[in-house]
Fold:
Amino acid sequence: MAYVKSTNKADIPTITLQPTDRSYQGIDQWRMAIKAAEDLYYPSRAKKEDLFKEIKLDAHLTSIIGKRHDNITNRRIVFYNKDGSENDDITNLLDTESAEDMINDLLDSRFHGHTLLWFNSITNEKIDYTLIDRAHVRPSTKQVLNRPYDLFGTSYADKPIYNYIIEAGKPSDLGLFMVCAIWVIYKKGGVADFALFAESFGSPFREYIYEDPTVKAALETAAQQVGASSYIVRPANAEFKLHETANKTGSKDLFVGLADLCDQQMSKAILRNTMTTDALGGNYKGEVHEKSEKGVIKADKRLIIRILNEKFRPLLETFGIKADGRFSFEGDDPVDFETQVQRDREFVDKFEVEPEHYYKKYNQPIPKGGAALKNNGLKPVDEKDSESKSKKEMAANSTDEMHRVSTSQKRTFVSLVKNLFSWLPWVE
Structure:
């Protein structure tokens, strides 16, 4: 079916975008961002978002965030109608680029904290929405601010605006980026010091000595033109000493160790482990960490599916798209076992199906005689007949076992008697 384009009947709250603050972000700025976001009367998330834009330039943080996104967007999302059949139209809508962008923005609520999406229109080909700049949103009062530091804004808690939005994340949640920010700051400082260390001790140090002061200027010019390595121009009667570290390799390990520590802490915050990103400690530990990461993936899947079912599905209805069913990741079939078996029985009655299909579907071994459908269908076994047959088999097995034990005991007794009286000539 083709959806008729339905456009939002409410106006998006007006905001005046501000340039990102790219000034130095250190520990003081990190603390100021937390305090501003947690202010009891007029909280502001502008400093927090500026800080987050800066720390997202870190390569390791970008990698592990991308890993969590890939674990969700690489999985197909299916919409099932109430009868359990797949709704191709809505499923295909979730397979569009705009839908993937929406899912990524919703998942970002884990990292940025509270997230607000505004929907303008939905067609069978595109979800037209806008991510409201988080710096302009005050979740505690449910307001969109025209400027990040305004005292009051437009409420999005009332209709008709409320009908066209999706909120993700708790109002008080500042996001996992706030946890990672301090480690990015420490890492940047450590790497900057490492670069200075390499510049100072990684290149040869040049020393220019003069006795005639008139040649000092010429020596300095020559030193500047030779290269970028460090140098000093000094008079002959002046003394200069360069005190190097006793162990350059150890100093290098110190800087690298600090960077690794910061990366590990970020991995713990985002992935709940370290070893699926940088494999250390052997296979066993890596497997343990992989299990913890699977728990993170499961939690992200639950988050996305809950939002789609509880908030996005009613939004589809608002735009005139019938969505009487549920979203689910492919493979996470919401249909219970009994219902699925009943459907398979009905399907076999109407169509020819290779028996191997059902053995694979229900993960059952194929019998030695080959795969076959019982009575040309998936006929349920009568419980009474099954129970009676089982009892008969148990009774027969028990009788056979008693007979075997009795025979064995008789043979053992005869053998014992023969051994006792073997000295008699007539005993064979």
Summary: The longest helix spans residues 383-420. The two ends are 94 Å apart (CA to CA). The chain is about 50% helix and 10% strand.
